[in-house]
Specification:
- The structure is a homodimer of 318-residue chains.
- Chain A is an alpha/beta fold.
- Chain A folds into 2 domains: 124 residues, 2-Layer Sandwich (Nucleotidyltransferase, domain 5); 172 residues, ATPase, nucleotide binding domain (Nucleotidyltransferase, domain 5).
- The first copy, chain A, has 10 helices and 12 strands.
- A 5-stranded mixed beta sheet of chain A has the order 3-2-1-4-7.
- In chain A, β1 and β2 form a beta hairpin.
- In chain A, α8 crosses α9.
- Chains A and B meet through β9 and α8 of A and β9 and α8 of B.
Chain lengths: 318, 318
Protein backbone atom coordinates (compact mmCIF):
# COMPACT_ATOMS: atom_id res chain seq x y z
CA UNK A 1 0.00 0.00 0.00
CA UNK A 2 1.34 3.47 -0.80
CA UNK A 3 0.18 7.09 -0.74
CA UNK A 4 -0.68 7.23 2.92
CA UNK A 5 -0.80 10.64 4.54
CA UNK A 6 -0.07 11.11 8.21
CA UNK A 7 -1.81 13.78 10.25
CA UNK A 8 -0.38 14.81 13.62
CA UNK A 9 -2.25 16.83 16.22
CA UNK A 10 0.39 18.05 18.67
CA UNK A 11 -1.24 19.16 21.90
CA UNK A 12 -0.02 20.26 25.29
CA UNK A 13 -1.31 16.99 26.77
CA UNK A 14 -1.59 14.48 23.91
CA UNK A 15 -0.19 13.70 20.50
CA UNK A 16 -2.84 12.23 18.19
CA UNK A 17 -1.91 10.77 14.82
CA UNK A 18 -4.02 9.40 11.98
CA UNK A 19 -3.08 7.61 8.75
CA UNK A 20 -5.28 8.57 5.79
CA UNK A 21 -5.64 6.65 2.54
CA UNK A 22 -8.19 7.70 -0.09
CA UNK A 23 -9.57 10.22 2.44
CA UNK A 24 -10.38 7.41 4.91
CA UNK A 25 -8.81 6.95 8.33
CA UNK A 26 -7.04 3.59 8.16
CA UNK A 27 -4.97 3.92 11.33
CA UNK A 28 -4.66 6.09 14.41
CA UNK A 29 -2.55 6.38 17.54
CA UNK A 30 -2.39 8.54 20.64
CA UNK A 31 0.36 9.13 23.20
CA UNK A 32 0.93 11.59 26.03
CA UNK A 33 3.07 14.59 25.09
CA UNK A 34 6.50 14.25 26.75
CA UNK A 35 7.33 16.99 29.24
CA UNK A 36 11.07 16.40 28.99
CA UNK A 37 12.11 18.64 26.11
CA UNK A 38 12.19 19.02 22.34
CA UNK A 39 14.06 15.81 21.46
CA UNK A 40 11.56 13.64 23.32
CA UNK A 41 8.58 15.45 21.75
CA UNK A 42 10.01 14.91 18.25
CA UNK A 43 10.69 11.26 19.06
CA UNK A 44 7.13 10.83 20.35
CA UNK A 45 5.65 12.40 17.20
CA UNK A 46 7.72 10.10 15.01
CA UNK A 47 6.82 7.03 17.07
CA UNK A 48 3.10 7.94 16.99
CA UNK A 49 3.27 8.43 13.22
CA UNK A 50 4.88 5.02 12.79
CA UNK A 51 2.33 3.47 15.18
CA UNK A 52 -0.53 4.85 13.05
CA UNK A 53 1.11 3.37 9.95
CA UNK A 54 1.48 0.03 11.71
CA UNK A 55 -2.16 0.16 12.80
CA UNK A 56 -2.95 0.61 9.10
CA UNK A 57 -0.81 -2.42 8.21
CA UNK A 58 1.70 -0.26 6.38
CA UNK A 59 5.32 0.78 6.84
CA UNK A 60 7.21 4.08 6.99
CA UNK A 61 8.13 3.73 3.32
CA UNK A 62 4.46 4.20 2.38
CA UNK A 63 4.23 7.70 3.88
CA UNK A 64 3.43 10.20 1.13
CA UNK A 65 3.46 13.22 3.42
CA UNK A 66 3.01 14.41 6.98
CA UNK A 67 0.93 17.32 8.26
CA UNK A 68 1.30 18.66 11.78
CA UNK A 69 -1.00 20.95 13.68
CA UNK A 70 0.85 22.67 16.51
CA UNK A 71 -0.22 25.20 19.09
CA UNK A 72 1.56 28.56 19.12
CA UNK A 73 3.06 30.79 16.49
CA UNK A 74 4.06 28.98 13.32
CA UNK A 75 6.34 29.89 10.46
CA UNK A 76 4.52 27.87 7.81
CA UNK A 77 7.19 28.36 5.14
CA UNK A 78 10.15 27.21 7.23
CA UNK A 79 8.19 24.62 9.23
CA UNK A 80 9.25 26.29 12.46
CA UNK A 81 7.20 26.65 15.63
CA UNK A 82 8.47 30.03 16.78
CA UNK A 83 6.91 29.79 20.23
CA UNK A 84 4.45 27.46 21.90
CA UNK A 85 4.46 27.96 25.67
CA UNK A 86 2.18 24.99 26.41
CA UNK A 87 4.75 22.42 25.24
CA UNK A 88 7.88 21.93 27.33
CA UNK A 89 10.94 22.92 25.33
CA UNK A 90 8.94 25.00 22.82
CA UNK A 91 9.44 28.39 24.47
CA UNK A 92 11.86 29.33 21.71
CA UNK A 93 11.92 28.39 18.00
CA UNK A 94 11.76 24.66 17.18
CA UNK A 95 12.44 23.36 13.67
CA UNK A 96 9.54 20.96 13.96
CA UNK A 97 8.99 20.35 10.24
CA UNK A 98 12.65 19.66 9.28
CA UNK A 99 13.27 17.51 12.40
CA UNK A 100 10.25 15.25 11.83
CA UNK A 101 11.02 15.08 8.11
CA UNK A 102 14.59 13.94 8.74
CA UNK A 103 13.50 11.30 11.29
CA UNK A 104 11.01 9.84 8.78
CA UNK A 105 13.40 9.59 5.83
CA UNK A 106 12.98 13.12 4.41
CA UNK A 107 9.24 12.95 3.73
CA UNK A 108 7.38 16.22 3.03
CA UNK A 109 6.19 17.80 6.27
CA UNK A 110 3.69 20.69 6.45
CA UNK A 111 2.88 22.46 9.68
CA UNK A 112 0.14 24.90 10.66
CA UNK A 113 -1.52 26.27 13.75
CA UNK A 114 -3.47 23.53 15.57
CA UNK A 115 -6.79 25.35 15.63
CA UNK A 116 -6.71 26.26 11.96
CA UNK A 117 -5.78 22.69 11.14
CA UNK A 118 -8.78 21.43 13.13
CA UNK A 119 -11.00 23.80 11.17
CA UNK A 120 -9.48 22.49 7.92
CA UNK A 121 -10.39 18.97 9.09
CA UNK A 122 -13.98 19.93 9.91
CA UNK A 123 -14.32 21.75 6.59
CA UNK A 124 -12.81 18.95 4.52
CA UNK A 125 -14.38 15.91 6.23
CA UNK A 126 -16.55 17.06 9.14
CA UNK A 127 -19.66 19.08 9.93
CA UNK A 128 -18.43 22.25 8.23
CA UNK A 129 -18.20 20.46 4.86
CA UNK A 130 -21.50 21.76 3.41
CA UNK A 131 -20.62 25.41 4.03
CA UNK A 132 -18.43 28.03 2.36
CA UNK A 133 -18.63 30.59 5.20
CA UNK A 134 -18.22 29.02 8.61
CA UNK A 135 -16.52 29.77 11.92
CA UNK A 136 -15.04 26.97 14.01
CA UNK A 137 -14.75 27.58 17.73
CA UNK A 138 -12.61 25.15 19.69
CA UNK A 139 -13.33 25.34 23.39
CA UNK A 140 -10.47 23.56 25.10
CA UNK A 141 -7.85 24.73 27.60
CA UNK A 142 -8.13 28.01 25.72
CA UNK A 143 -10.66 29.10 23.11
CA UNK A 144 -9.37 29.06 19.54
CA UNK A 145 -11.06 29.79 16.27
CA UNK A 146 -10.73 29.11 12.57
CA UNK A 147 -12.58 30.98 9.86
CA UNK A 148 -13.53 29.55 6.51
CA UNK A 149 -14.65 32.39 4.22
CA UNK A 150 -15.49 31.83 0.58
CA UNK A 151 -14.52 28.17 1.05
CA UNK A 152 -10.98 29.00 2.15
CA UNK A 153 -9.23 29.13 5.49
CA UNK A 154 -8.76 32.78 6.34
CA UNK A 155 -5.13 33.48 7.27
CA UNK A 156 -5.26 37.28 7.51
CA UNK A 157 -1.65 38.32 8.01
CA UNK A 158 -1.07 35.00 9.77
CA UNK A 159 -3.13 35.38 12.92
CA UNK A 160 -6.81 35.37 11.86
CA UNK A 161 -9.45 33.51 13.85
CA UNK A 162 -8.74 34.56 17.43
CA UNK A 163 -12.36 34.53 18.59
CA UNK A 164 -11.13 33.66 22.11
CA UNK A 165 -9.84 37.19 22.49
CA UNK A 166 -13.18 38.85 21.83
CA UNK A 167 -13.96 41.14 24.74
CA UNK A 168 -17.30 39.99 26.17
CA UNK A 169 -17.20 41.98 29.43
CA UNK A 170 -15.14 45.14 29.88
CA UNK A 171 -13.28 44.94 33.20
CA UNK A 172 -14.23 41.28 33.54
CA UNK A 173 -12.20 38.18 34.39
CA UNK A 174 -8.51 38.05 33.53
CA UNK A 175 -7.68 36.04 30.42
CA UNK A 176 -4.59 33.91 29.74
CA UNK A 177 -3.08 36.90 27.93
CA UNK A 178 -3.50 39.19 30.96
CA UNK A 179 -6.34 41.23 29.45
CA UNK A 180 -9.75 41.45 31.06
CA UNK A 181 -13.10 40.13 29.95
CA UNK A 182 -12.14 38.00 26.98
CA UNK A 183 -14.28 35.05 25.87
CA UNK A 184 -11.44 32.68 26.82
CA UNK A 185 -11.52 33.93 30.42
CA UNK A 186 -15.12 32.69 30.68
CA UNK A 187 -15.15 29.62 28.45
CA UNK A 188 -11.60 28.23 28.32
CA UNK A 189 -11.12 25.20 30.56
CA UNK A 190 -7.87 26.65 31.92
CA UNK A 191 -9.52 29.85 33.17
CA UNK A 192 -12.56 27.88 34.41
CA UNK A 193 -10.16 25.95 36.63
CA UNK A 194 -8.49 29.15 37.88
CA UNK A 195 -11.95 30.49 38.75
CA UNK A 196 -13.00 27.23 40.44
CA UNK A 197 -9.86 27.29 42.65
CA UNK A 198 -10.55 30.93 43.57
CA UNK A 199 -14.12 30.10 44.56
CA UNK A 200 -12.97 27.11 46.65
CA UNK A 201 -10.39 29.30 48.40
CA UNK A 202 -13.27 31.64 49.31
CA UNK A 203 -15.13 28.76 50.91
CA UNK A 204 -17.48 27.73 48.10
CA UNK A 205 -18.16 24.03 47.77
CA UNK A 206 -17.88 21.82 44.73
CA UNK A 207 -17.44 18.17 43.76
CA UNK A 208 -15.17 19.19 40.87
CA UNK A 209 -11.84 18.45 42.57
CA UNK A 210 -13.10 15.22 44.15
CA UNK A 211 -14.21 14.01 40.73
CA UNK A 212 -10.83 15.06 39.35
CA UNK A 213 -9.02 12.95 41.96
CA UNK A 214 -11.35 10.00 41.47
CA UNK A 215 -10.54 10.11 37.75
CA UNK A 216 -6.82 10.23 38.52
CA UNK A 217 -6.45 13.65 36.92
CA UNK A 218 -4.42 16.66 38.03
CA UNK A 219 -6.50 19.14 36.04
CA UNK A 220 -10.21 19.86 35.72
CA UNK A 221 -10.51 18.13 32.36
CA UNK A 222 -13.56 18.40 30.11
CA UNK A 223 -14.59 14.96 31.38
CA UNK A 224 -14.44 16.21 34.98
CA UNK A 225 -16.74 19.13 34.10
CA UNK A 226 -19.11 16.79 32.25
CA UNK A 227 -19.34 14.45 35.26
CA UNK A 228 -19.84 17.33 37.71
CA UNK A 229 -22.61 18.79 35.52
CA UNK A 230 -24.34 15.40 35.44
CA UNK A 231 -24.18 15.29 39.24
CA UNK A 232 -25.81 18.74 39.36
CA UNK A 233 -22.75 20.32 40.98
CA UNK A 234 -23.61 23.99 41.59
CA UNK A 235 -20.18 25.45 40.88
CA UNK A 236 -19.74 23.47 37.65
CA UNK A 237 -23.22 24.58 36.57
CA UNK A 238 -22.42 28.22 37.38
CA UNK A 239 -19.11 28.09 35.49
CA UNK A 240 -20.59 26.44 32.40
CA UNK A 241 -23.54 28.88 32.48
CA UNK A 242 -20.97 31.67 32.30
CA UNK A 243 -19.16 29.95 29.42
CA UNK A 244 -22.44 29.63 27.47
CA UNK A 245 -23.26 33.29 28.18
CA UNK A 246 -19.82 34.46 27.00
CA UNK A 247 -19.95 32.29 23.87
CA UNK A 248 -23.39 33.76 23.10
CA UNK A 249 -22.04 37.31 23.20
CA UNK A 250 -18.86 36.69 21.21
CA UNK A 251 -20.49 34.49 18.58
CA UNK A 252 -23.54 36.72 18.02
CA UNK A 253 -21.25 39.74 17.53
CA UNK A 254 -19.10 37.74 15.08
CA UNK A 255 -22.25 36.59 13.26
CA UNK A 256 -23.60 40.16 13.00
CA UNK A 257 -20.29 41.21 11.46
CA UNK A 258 -19.74 38.24 9.12
CA UNK A 259 -23.22 36.83 8.32
CA UNK A 260 -21.94 33.25 8.31
CA UNK A 261 -23.82 30.14 7.21
CA UNK A 262 -22.72 28.06 10.17
CA UNK A 263 -20.74 27.97 13.40
CA UNK A 264 -19.10 24.68 14.45
CA UNK A 265 -18.28 24.29 18.14
CA UNK A 266 -15.64 21.75 19.14
CA UNK A 267 -12.62 21.38 21.38
CA UNK A 268 -12.48 19.32 24.56
CA UNK A 269 -15.42 21.04 26.26
CA UNK A 270 -17.47 21.36 23.08
CA UNK A 271 -17.05 17.69 22.19
CA UNK A 272 -17.39 16.35 25.73
CA UNK A 273 -20.44 18.39 26.78
CA UNK A 274 -21.98 17.72 23.37
CA UNK A 275 -25.43 18.51 22.05
CA UNK A 276 -26.96 20.03 25.22
CA UNK A 277 -24.04 22.50 25.40
CA UNK A 278 -24.30 23.36 21.68
CA UNK A 279 -28.07 23.85 21.98
CA UNK A 280 -27.68 26.16 24.96
CA UNK A 281 -25.12 28.24 23.05
CA UNK A 282 -27.50 28.41 20.10
CA UNK A 283 -30.29 29.59 22.40
CA UNK A 284 -27.98 32.38 23.63
CA UNK A 285 -26.87 33.44 20.16
CA UNK A 286 -30.21 33.57 18.37
CA UNK A 287 -31.95 36.43 20.25
CA UNK A 288 -28.79 38.55 19.99
CA UNK A 289 -28.70 38.44 16.19
CA UNK A 290 -29.84 41.31 14.00
CA UNK A 291 -31.61 38.66 11.91
CA UNK A 292 -32.78 35.98 14.39
CA UNK A 293 -34.90 34.41 11.62
CA UNK A 294 -31.77 33.95 9.56
CA UNK A 295 -29.54 32.45 12.25
CA UNK A 296 -26.54 30.37 11.21
CA UNK A 297 -26.56 26.61 11.80
CA UNK A 298 -24.89 25.95 15.16
CA UNK A 299 -23.26 22.51 15.11
CA UNK A 300 -20.91 20.26 17.02
CA UNK A 301 -17.89 18.80 15.27
CA UNK A 302 -18.16 15.83 12.93
CA UNK A 303 -14.73 14.41 13.74
CA UNK A 304 -14.60 15.09 17.48
CA UNK A 305 -11.08 14.95 18.88
CA UNK A 306 -9.76 13.75 15.52
CA UNK A 307 -10.54 17.10 13.78
CA UNK A 308 -6.98 18.29 14.29
CA UNK A 309 -5.19 15.13 13.16
CA UNK A 310 -7.46 14.69 10.12
CA UNK A 311 -7.05 18.39 9.26
CA UNK A 312 -3.27 18.02 9.52
CA UNK A 313 -3.42 15.11 7.07
CA UNK A 314 -5.61 17.22 4.75
CA UNK A 315 -2.98 19.98 4.97
CA UNK A 316 -0.43 17.45 3.66
CA UNK A 317 -2.70 16.48 0.76
CA UNK A 318 -4.56 13.60 2.42
CA UNK B 1 -19.53 64.04 -23.69
CA UNK B 2 -20.80 60.53 -23.03
CA UNK B 3 -20.21 57.67 -20.62
CA UNK B 4 -20.96 59.56 -17.45
CA UNK B 5 -21.91 57.53 -14.41
CA UNK B 6 -24.16 58.94 -11.71
CA UNK B 7 -23.75 57.95 -8.08
CA UNK B 8 -26.55 58.64 -5.62
CA UNK B 9 -26.17 58.52 -1.85
CA UNK B 10 -29.71 58.43 -0.48
CA UNK B 11 -29.72 59.37 3.18
CA UNK B 12 -32.35 60.06 5.80
CA UNK B 13 -31.39 63.74 5.74
CA UNK B 14 -29.67 64.41 2.43
CA UNK B 15 -29.42 63.12 -1.12
CA UNK B 16 -25.90 63.52 -2.52
CA UNK B 17 -25.18 62.89 -6.19
CA UNK B 18 -21.94 62.84 -8.16
CA UNK B 19 -21.25 62.55 -11.89
CA UNK B 20 -18.14 60.49 -12.72
CA UNK B 21 -16.25 60.47 -16.01
CA UNK B 22 -12.97 58.54 -16.36
CA UNK B 23 -13.08 57.89 -12.60
CA UNK B 24 -13.05 61.65 -11.87
CA UNK B 25 -15.83 63.63 -10.20
CA UNK B 26 -16.96 66.16 -12.81
CA UNK B 27 -20.18 67.25 -11.12
CA UNK B 28 -21.98 66.98 -7.79
CA UNK B 29 -25.20 68.07 -6.18
CA UNK B 30 -26.89 67.85 -2.80
CA UNK B 31 -30.52 68.31 -1.70
CA UNK B 32 -32.49 67.63 1.45
CA UNK B 33 -34.38 64.33 1.43
CA UNK B 34 -38.12 65.02 1.08
CA UNK B 35 -40.22 63.90 4.04
CA UNK B 36 -43.44 63.78 2.01
CA UNK B 37 -43.44 60.26 0.58
CA UNK B 38 -42.00 57.99 -2.08
CA UNK B 39 -42.96 60.03 -5.18
CA UNK B 40 -41.21 63.12 -3.88
CA UNK B 41 -38.08 61.17 -2.88
CA UNK B 42 -37.85 59.63 -6.37
CA UNK B 43 -38.38 63.08 -7.95
CA UNK B 44 -35.65 64.55 -5.73
CA UNK B 45 -33.19 61.77 -6.66
CA UNK B 46 -33.88 62.31 -10.35
CA UNK B 47 -33.55 66.10 -10.03
CA UNK B 48 -30.29 65.75 -8.08
CA UNK B 49 -28.92 63.36 -10.72
CA UNK B 50 -29.80 65.81 -13.48
CA UNK B 51 -28.31 68.70 -11.47
CA UNK B 52 -25.00 66.79 -11.14
CA UNK B 53 -25.04 66.23 -14.92
CA UNK B 54 -25.69 69.91 -15.50
CA UNK B 55 -22.88 70.84 -13.11
CA UNK B 56 -20.68 68.64 -15.34
CA UNK B 57 -21.89 70.47 -18.44
CA UNK B 58 -23.66 67.36 -19.71
CA UNK B 59 -27.24 66.28 -20.31
CA UNK B 60 -29.39 63.33 -19.29
CA UNK B 61 -28.68 61.61 -22.61
CA UNK B 62 -25.02 61.18 -21.53
CA UNK B 63 -25.84 59.02 -18.49
CA UNK B 64 -24.28 55.57 -18.92
CA UNK B 65 -25.61 54.20 -15.66
CA UNK B 66 -26.81 55.11 -12.18
CA UNK B 67 -25.82 53.58 -8.85
CA UNK B 68 -27.76 54.23 -5.68
CA UNK B 69 -26.74 53.57 -2.11
CA UNK B 70 -29.79 53.34 0.12
CA UNK B 71 -30.19 52.67 3.82
CA UNK B 72 -32.20 49.63 4.84
CA UNK B 73 -32.75 46.18 3.40
CA UNK B 74 -32.11 45.95 -0.32
CA UNK B 75 -33.11 43.40 -2.95
CA UNK B 76 -30.12 43.98 -5.21
CA UNK B 77 -31.49 41.84 -8.05
CA UNK B 78 -34.88 43.53 -8.31
CA UNK B 79 -33.62 46.99 -7.35
CA UNK B 80 -36.13 47.13 -4.52
CA UNK B 81 -35.64 48.71 -1.10
CA UNK B 82 -37.68 46.27 0.97
CA UNK B 83 -37.64 48.46 4.08
CA UNK B 84 -35.84 51.61 5.15
CA UNK B 85 -37.47 53.12 8.24
CA UNK B 86 -35.37 56.32 8.19
CA UNK B 87 -36.90 57.56 4.93
CA UNK B 88 -40.53 58.68 4.93
CA UNK B 89 -42.58 56.39 2.69
CA UNK B 90 -39.98 53.60 2.70
CA UNK B 91 -41.51 51.50 5.50
CA UNK B 92 -42.66 48.98 2.91
CA UNK B 93 -41.08 47.85 -0.38
CA UNK B 94 -40.16 50.62 -2.86
CA UNK B 95 -39.15 49.82 -6.45
CA UNK B 96 -36.37 52.37 -6.25
CA UNK B 97 -34.27 51.03 -9.14
CA UNK B 98 -37.09 50.65 -11.71
CA UNK B 99 -38.69 54.01 -10.76
CA UNK B 100 -35.45 55.99 -11.10
CA UNK B 101 -34.58 54.11 -14.30
CA UNK B 102 -37.93 54.97 -15.88
CA UNK B 103 -37.68 58.64 -14.89
CA UNK B 104 -34.23 58.91 -16.52
CA UNK B 105 -35.14 57.27 -19.84
CA UNK B 106 -34.60 53.62 -18.90
CA UNK B 107 -30.91 53.87 -17.94
CA UNK B 108 -29.35 50.97 -16.00
CA UNK B 109 -29.78 51.46 -12.26
CA UNK B 110 -27.94 49.43 -9.60
CA UNK B 111 -28.77 49.70 -5.92
CA UNK B 112 -26.98 48.50 -2.80
CA UNK B 113 -26.92 49.17 0.92
CA UNK B 114 -25.59 52.68 1.65
CA UNK B 115 -22.82 51.60 4.01
CA UNK B 116 -21.51 48.90 1.71
CA UNK B 117 -21.57 51.38 -1.16
CA UNK B 118 -19.54 53.86 0.93
CA UNK B 119 -17.01 51.10 1.60
CA UNK B 120 -16.87 50.34 -2.12
CA UNK B 121 -16.12 54.03 -2.72
CA UNK B 122 -13.33 54.09 -0.14
CA UNK B 123 -11.87 50.88 -1.53
CA UNK B 124 -12.04 51.99 -5.17
CA UNK B 125 -10.98 55.62 -4.82
CA UNK B 126 -10.36 56.44 -1.14
CA UNK B 127 -8.10 55.54 1.77
CA UNK B 128 -8.90 51.82 1.64
CA UNK B 129 -7.49 51.54 -1.89
CA UNK B 130 -4.07 50.09 -0.96
CA UNK B 131 -5.58 47.21 1.05
CA UNK B 132 -7.19 43.88 0.28
CA UNK B 133 -8.48 43.21 3.83
CA UNK B 134 -10.07 46.26 5.39
CA UNK B 135 -13.05 47.15 7.55
CA UNK B 136 -14.90 50.42 7.04
CA UNK B 137 -16.77 51.80 10.04
CA UNK B 138 -19.21 54.59 9.35
CA UNK B 139 -20.11 56.45 12.52
CA UNK B 140 -23.18 58.49 11.69
CA UNK B 141 -26.71 58.47 13.09
CA UNK B 142 -26.09 54.76 13.51
CA UNK B 143 -22.86 52.80 13.17
CA UNK B 144 -22.56 50.82 9.95
CA UNK B 145 -19.76 48.72 8.58
CA UNK B 146 -18.48 47.34 5.31
CA UNK B 147 -15.90 44.56 5.02
CA UNK B 148 -13.49 44.15 2.14
CA UNK B 149 -11.89 40.69 2.38
CA UNK B 150 -9.57 39.39 -0.29
CA UNK B 151 -10.20 42.60 -2.23
CA UNK B 152 -13.95 42.03 -2.44
CA UNK B 153 -16.92 43.44 -0.59
CA UNK B 154 -18.15 40.75 1.77
CA UNK B 155 -21.89 40.19 1.34
CA UNK B 156 -22.33 37.14 3.56
CA UNK B 157 -25.90 36.06 2.99
CA UNK B 158 -26.76 39.71 2.33
CA UNK B 159 -26.23 41.28 5.74
CA UNK B 160 -22.49 41.20 6.45
CA UNK B 161 -20.67 44.12 8.05
CA UNK B 162 -22.91 45.02 10.99
CA UNK B 163 -20.12 46.10 13.32
CA UNK B 164 -22.56 48.51 14.99
CA UNK B 165 -24.31 45.56 16.58
CA UNK B 166 -21.23 44.22 18.32
CA UNK B 167 -21.99 43.92 22.02
CA UNK B 168 -19.42 46.03 23.86
CA UNK B 169 -21.11 46.03 27.27
CA UNK B 170 -23.55 43.35 28.45
CA UNK B 171 -26.54 45.02 30.06
CA UNK B 172 -25.38 48.42 28.79
CA UNK B 173 -27.21 51.22 26.98
CA UNK B 174 -30.16 50.42 24.75
CA UNK B 175 -29.40 50.39 21.02
CA UNK B 176 -31.65 51.45 18.14
CA UNK B 177 -32.63 47.77 17.73
CA UNK B 178 -33.76 47.48 21.36
CA UNK B 179 -30.83 45.34 22.45
CA UNK B 180 -28.44 46.41 25.18
CA UNK B 181 -24.80 47.38 25.05
CA UNK B 182 -24.17 47.50 21.29
CA UNK B 183 -21.43 49.68 19.82
CA UNK B 184 -24.10 51.81 18.12
CA UNK B 185 -25.66 52.64 21.51
CA UNK B 186 -22.36 54.28 22.54
CA UNK B 187 -21.05 55.69 19.28
CA UNK B 188 -24.04 56.37 16.99
CA UNK B 189 -25.03 60.04 16.87
CA UNK B 190 -28.70 59.11 17.34
CA UNK B 191 -28.10 57.28 20.61
CA UNK B 192 -25.64 59.95 21.77
CA UNK B 193 -28.48 62.44 21.43
CA UNK B 194 -30.88 60.18 23.35
CA UNK B 195 -28.28 59.92 26.12
CA UNK B 196 -27.64 63.69 26.13
CA UNK B 197 -31.39 64.41 26.51
CA UNK B 198 -31.57 61.90 29.37
CA UNK B 199 -28.66 63.56 31.15
CA UNK B 200 -30.20 67.03 30.68
CA UNK B 201 -33.51 65.76 32.09
CA UNK B 202 -31.55 64.62 35.16
CA UNK B 203 -30.19 68.13 35.63
CA UNK B 204 -26.78 67.82 33.92
CA UNK B 205 -25.60 70.87 32.02
CA UNK B 206 -24.34 71.11 28.47
CA UNK B 207 -23.90 73.64 25.67
CA UNK B 208 -24.88 70.97 23.11
CA UNK B 209 -28.48 72.06 22.65
CA UNK B 210 -27.63 75.78 22.65
CA UNK B 211 -25.06 75.17 19.90
CA UNK B 212 -27.69 73.13 18.04
CA UNK B 213 -30.15 76.05 18.14
CA UNK B 214 -27.49 78.58 17.21
CA UNK B 215 -26.68 76.44 14.15
CA UNK B 216 -30.38 76.28 13.26
CA UNK B 217 -30.47 72.50 13.70
CA UNK B 218 -33.13 70.29 15.26
CA UNK B 219 -30.72 67.42 15.93
CA UNK B 220 -27.33 67.09 17.59
CA UNK B 221 -25.47 66.86 14.29
CA UNK B 222 -21.82 65.84 14.01
CA UNK B 223 -21.01 69.53 13.58
CA UNK B 224 -22.77 70.33 16.86
CA UNK B 225 -20.68 67.70 18.67
CA UNK B 226 -17.50 69.01 17.04
CA UNK B 227 -18.25 72.58 18.15
CA UNK B 228 -19.14 71.49 21.71
CA UNK B 229 -15.91 69.47 21.96
CA UNK B 230 -13.90 72.49 20.85
CA UNK B 231 -15.60 74.56 23.56
CA UNK B 232 -14.59 71.92 26.11
CA UNK B 233 -18.22 71.03 26.89
CA UNK B 234 -18.12 68.37 29.61
CA UNK B 235 -21.10 66.32 28.45
CA UNK B 236 -19.94 66.25 24.83
CA UNK B 237 -16.49 65.19 26.02
CA UNK B 238 -17.97 62.46 28.18
CA UNK B 239 -20.17 61.16 25.36
CA UNK B 240 -17.36 61.13 22.79
CA UNK B 241 -15.02 59.48 25.34
CA UNK B 242 -17.61 56.72 25.60
CA UNK B 243 -17.85 56.43 21.82
CA UNK B 244 -14.06 56.10 21.54
CA UNK B 245 -14.04 53.48 24.31
CA UNK B 246 -16.80 51.45 22.63
CA UNK B 247 -15.15 51.66 19.21
CA UNK B 248 -11.91 50.45 20.81
CA UNK B 249 -13.60 47.34 22.19
CA UNK B 250 -15.57 46.43 19.07
CA UNK B 251 -12.76 47.11 16.62
CA UNK B 252 -10.05 45.32 18.62
CA UNK B 253 -12.28 42.23 18.88
CA UNK B 254 -12.96 42.37 15.13
CA UNK B 255 -9.25 42.79 14.46
CA UNK B 256 -8.35 39.81 16.69
CA UNK B 257 -10.83 37.71 14.72
CA UNK B 258 -10.01 38.92 11.21
CA UNK B 259 -6.36 40.12 11.30
CA UNK B 260 -7.08 42.99 8.89
CA UNK B 261 -4.56 45.27 7.21
CA UNK B 262 -6.51 48.44 7.88
CA UNK B 263 -9.62 49.96 9.43
CA UNK B 264 -11.14 53.08 7.84
CA UNK B 265 -13.36 55.23 10.06
CA UNK B 266 -15.83 57.58 8.41
CA UNK B 267 -19.44 58.66 8.65
CA UNK B 268 -20.61 62.05 9.89
CA UNK B 269 -18.89 61.85 13.27
CA UNK B 270 -15.75 60.16 11.89
CA UNK B 271 -15.33 62.76 9.13
CA UNK B 272 -16.32 65.77 11.23
CA UNK B 273 -14.23 64.98 14.32
CA UNK B 274 -11.37 63.96 12.05
CA UNK B 275 -7.79 63.04 12.90
CA UNK B 276 -7.90 63.60 16.69
CA UNK B 277 -10.91 61.24 16.92
CA UNK B 278 -9.25 58.62 14.68
CA UNK B 279 -6.03 58.83 16.71
CA UNK B 280 -7.87 58.37 19.99
CA UNK B 281 -9.65 55.30 18.61
CA UNK B 282 -6.31 53.91 17.45
CA UNK B 283 -4.87 54.46 20.94
CA UNK B 284 -7.80 52.46 22.36
CA UNK B 285 -7.51 49.62 19.86
CA UNK B 286 -3.78 48.97 19.97
CA UNK B 287 -3.31 47.76 23.58
CA UNK B 288 -6.33 45.43 23.18
CA UNK B 289 -4.83 43.53 20.25
CA UNK B 290 -3.26 40.11 20.59
CA UNK B 291 -0.48 41.47 18.35
CA UNK B 292 -0.11 45.17 19.30
CA UNK B 293 3.12 45.32 17.28
CA UNK B 294 1.20 44.25 14.22
CA UNK B 295 -1.75 46.65 14.52
CA UNK B 296 -3.79 47.50 11.43
CA UNK B 297 -3.54 50.97 9.92
CA UNK B 298 -6.36 53.11 11.41
CA UNK B 299 -7.38 55.77 8.92
CA UNK B 300 -10.03 58.38 8.20
CA UNK B 301 -11.87 58.32 4.88
CA UNK B 302 -10.31 59.65 1.71
CA UNK B 303 -13.57 60.83 0.17
CA UNK B 304 -15.30 62.20 3.26
CA UNK B 305 -19.05 62.60 2.80
CA UNK B 306 -18.73 61.70 -0.88
CA UNK B 307 -17.69 58.07 -0.11
CA UNK B 308 -21.27 56.89 -0.58
CA UNK B 309 -22.04 58.75 -3.80
CA UNK B 310 -18.69 57.82 -5.38
CA UNK B 311 -19.14 54.19 -4.28
CA UNK B 312 -22.61 54.17 -5.82
CA UNK B 313 -21.14 55.38 -9.11
CA UNK B 314 -18.44 52.68 -8.86
CA UNK B 315 -21.23 50.13 -8.34
CA UNK B 316 -22.70 51.25 -11.67
CA UNK B 317 -19.33 50.87 -13.42
CA UNK B 318 -18.01 54.42 -12.94
Amino acid sequence: MTEITIGVDLGGTKIQTVALHDKEIIGAHRVLTPTTGVDDVIAAIVAAAIAAMEAAGASTADIAGVGIGSPGHIDVVLGVVTRSPNIVGFNGPVELGPLVSKALGNVDVHIENDVRVAMLGEHARGNAAPYTDVLGVFVGTGVGGGLILGGKLRQGRGAAGEIGHTRVKPGGRICSDGQRGHLEAYAGRGQLEVRARELVSKGHRTELFKIMEKKGRTRLSSGVFAAALEDGDKMATYLIDDAVWALGIALSSAQNLLDLEAIVIGGGLGDRLGAPFIERIEAQIRPQLISPDNAPAILGTGLGDLSGAVGAAVLAGG
